[in-house]
Amino acid sequence: MKFTITRTNKQNKLMVSSKTVERFLERIAKDDAKLSVTNFRMSVPLMEADYQYYKGIKEWQHVYPDAEFSKDESGNLVFQKSNGLVMLHFINLMSDQEKDAVKKTVSLLPMTFAAFEGADGRSLIVLVSICNEEGKIPTKEADAELLYQSAYEQLKVLYQSQVQAAIKPEKPSLASNFMLTLDASPYYNSKAVAMRISQNMKKVASAPKNVEDLKTYDDYEFLYRKAAEETKEEMKKANISWQNDEDRYLASFSAIATKLCIMGLSEEEAFIHIRRNNWGHVTEEKLRQIVGTAYDTHSKDRKTAKSASGRKGRADILQMIRYLESRYQFRYNTVMKYTEYRPNNSWVGDFRPVDARVQKSMTLDVQIADIHVSIKDVRNFLESDRIRNYSPIESYLFDCLGKWDGKDRIRALARTVPTNNPYWEDWFYTWFLGMVDQWRGMYRRQYGNSTMPLLISKQGYNKSTFCRRLIPTELSWWGFTDNMILSEKRQVLQAMSQFLLINLDEFNQISPQVQQGFLKNLLQLPTVKIKPPYGSHIEEFPRLASFIATSNMTDILADPSGNRRFLGVELTGPINVSGRLNYEQLYAQAMQALEHGEKSYFDAKETAIIMQSNKQFEQISPIKQCFLEVFEPTNDLKEGEYLTTAAIFDILKQKFGSSLQVSSIQKLGRELQNIEGLQSKKTRFGTEYLVVRK
């Protein structure tokens, strides 16, 4: 596949060449010596949107990605073959964060062939792979053009639903082109899956002529362009000598606003489009004053009629949506389960939750802009599925995928924990993979990450700090908690669907009953069922959280049936927390291991070793202590005797007296079943145990 590249030389002749996609991407990684893209981008804020007066703009190279062309004898471009690509041009991306966000979003779509920054530094060129219903690319120009136009309309809707950025309004054509640009890190997918376009192709609709026909951003933008072109021609004919550029722009925007008012656009809609094309020439405050004055002068009858009707209709809702989207970027955090926002053109990268105060502020701004909606309308929009979904953990793991440098950082992290346990490094490695697998596969797992490291030492050994450092800095402010009260079951279940790692600090304070029951069940859950705050019914959510625990005491495990859920290790010294962790490589290693099928769970052999190792941390109940003081297991039938639980209890009671209650018989029975080496047999009197008296 080749891109056609054209330029006009100083003799005004069209020069045509071509480059393969790979050579083209190599080309745009470095700047052009003759017409510097970097210098051009520095000048963009000082120019009009069409850049017609920029020095050397006529000689700038233009790239035709959608088809290959040649030049005929008359110097005209002639179609050769279609590349099966459609170009979408996202505009008004005012910060690197916005451009990166769009590039990242489109890269998630399998049909995206390439994405790179536009020459102006404020846009993104996206190339999408297409084919017809038979999976082929038409060879005839007419068929290819029809396919392109149909595909453009379908793709524009699809990509616009995923990306919160405007697509440049232009007539879809195989001859669509862009200025030679600069991007050191373009997105490229040579194996992009071509989107099959339906053969039931409809003719592309013509631009709207009446404001009542307006349905999309592109329609509004068309009217702005029409008003701007008319104003430009009028100002050329007037041949007025302006004192400075600011006065010229003020007059231009005032004329455009007047025309848009007469066309029927709302004041706010006009302001949105004028502001987007301002390019920093006029302050926003002054710009709003210009638009307001134009509308006050020319829209009295329309305003009176609107206020008299007092009706809130479709147009008001659409204006409200356009108003909010022109000022903010929105996304729905699927982990925290709320909508977040960030002002457009903000240099601050953090999104913030849309709380009740923010909703009210936004509502007031909308109403001040003379858009007749209520806070309920604003809330309906902010809580609807019109807001794109965003998963911070999926985004983070996706960024790490394929970046591992081959160094084992997971086991290296485990080695910062000093212990004599020879299995610790491998245990921690498997558990860490289980934690990451829990995050990435939260919607399809049948079982949860059912084990938890248990770090045991005296105070001051940096156990809690180590636990906190396991979560990447970008996710730590919401992804980690060590303030969990297991008795508050609803809180715990909700936390499991929101947090990434839960540290059960001071594990020794958890009662044996909770260990054996509620906690044991929690560790194996793949999902949680809770009623969300302000929700009307119970919902099922995927589990995110894995568990880790710390303790200052050694005798803390209380399940007589075995403690296979815990990876207990006793520290021999303080944990080394001085080094800075390379989180990208740490999680890149985990993602690569999981992608290559490494197991993230413990098999039967490993579980047996874990249970044996945990015996040193098991609590010995008082009833078991009483038994071991009087009896011991044996395999010798000659020296031993078979006794029922009741008989054993009776002997113990004779020795220890009233300290043993009748209720202890049941506890004794459970303890006897789990005493290593104690033989038993079933009889008509119940289970009997082979013991010898000390």
Supply the key terms.
alpha+beta; single chain; six-stranded mixed sheet; 694 residues
Explain what this protein looks like in three dimensions.
The chain has 694 residues and is α+β, with helices and mostly antiparallel strands. It folds into five domains: 195 residues, no CATH class; 99 residues, no CATH class; 77 residues, no CATH class; 220 residues, Rossmann fold, CATH 3.40.50; 72 residues, Arc Repressor Mutant, subunit A, CATH 1.10.10. It is built from 24 helices and 27 strands. The strands form seven sheets. Strands 6, 7, 8, 9, 11 and 12 form a six-stranded mixed β-sheet that branches. A hairpin with a 5-residue loop joins strand 1 and strand 2. Helix 5 packs across helix 6 and helix 6 runs antiparallel to helix 7. The chain is elongated and about 120 Å long. The termini are far apart. The relative contact order is 0.06.
Explain the layout of strands and helices.
Layout: E1 2-8, E2 14-20, H1 21-27, H2 37-43, E3 62-64, E4 67-71, E5 77-82, E6 85-91, H3 96-107, E7 112-117, E8 124-131, H4 141-162, E9 166-167, E10 178-179, E11 187-188, E12 195-196, H5 217-238, H6 245-263, H7 267-276, H8 284-298, H9 300-309, H10 314-327, E13 328-333, E14 338-343, E15 352-353, H11 356-368, H12 375-382, E16 389-390, H13 392-400, H14 409-414, H15 424-440, E17 452-456, H16 463-469, H17 473-479, E18 480-481, H18 489-496, E19 501-504, H19 512-522, E20 527-530, E21 539-542, E22 546-551, E23 566-570, H20 583-595, H21 604-614, H22 622-630, E24 631-633, E25 641-644, H23 645-656, H24 664-673, E26 680-683, E27 686-693
Parallel strand pairs: 8-12, 13-16, 17-22, 17-23, 18-19, 19-22
Antiparallel strand pairs: 1-2, 1-3, 3-10, 4-5, 6-8, 6-9, 7-8, 7-11, 13-14, 14-15, 20-21, 24-27, 25-27, 26-27
Helix pairs in contact: 5-6, 6-7, 6-8, 7-8, 15-20
